[in-house]
Structure to design on (127 residues):
């Protein structure tokens, strides 16, 4: 009987401990104060490619790049090396006459994100 009561209390104790631990933590999902990014305007748009980029700010940036896709809050990553400063990426294999969303990102201890921007590729043949 005592074993059953103890086994009933263990899950409750675990929940209380997790609530205490995670309640005292501050999650910084939006980015790190140690690094940040800004998203540059798109250029050189064709029917199947576009030049995008950003600027990486901060120390100890281990990688940086662009996320892009055809829906807001895109999730397709394209890496552009590491370190601070401006960077560009040529996106290729895009679909003509399609709206794309993109934003710059950096990684130091956490992700830092630039603002989301968008562009539309030209119609087939550059019209």
């Amino acid at each position: 009987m005592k074993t059953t009561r103890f086994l009933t209390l263990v899950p409750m104790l675990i929940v209380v401990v997790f609530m205490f631990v995670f309640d005292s933590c501050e999650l910084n999902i939006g980015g790190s104060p140690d690094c940040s990014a800004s998203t540059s305007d798109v250029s050189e748009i064709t029917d199947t490619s576009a030049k995008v980029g950003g600027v990486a700010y901060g120390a100890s940036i281990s990688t940086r790049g662009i996320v892009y896709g055809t829906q807001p809050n895109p999730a397709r990553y394209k890496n552009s090396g590491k370190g601070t400063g401006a960077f560009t990426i040529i996106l290729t294999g895009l679909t003509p006459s399609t709206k794309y969303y993109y934003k710059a990102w950096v990684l130091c201890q956490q992700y830092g994100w630039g603002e989301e921007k968008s562009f539309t590729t030209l119609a087939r043949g550059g019209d």
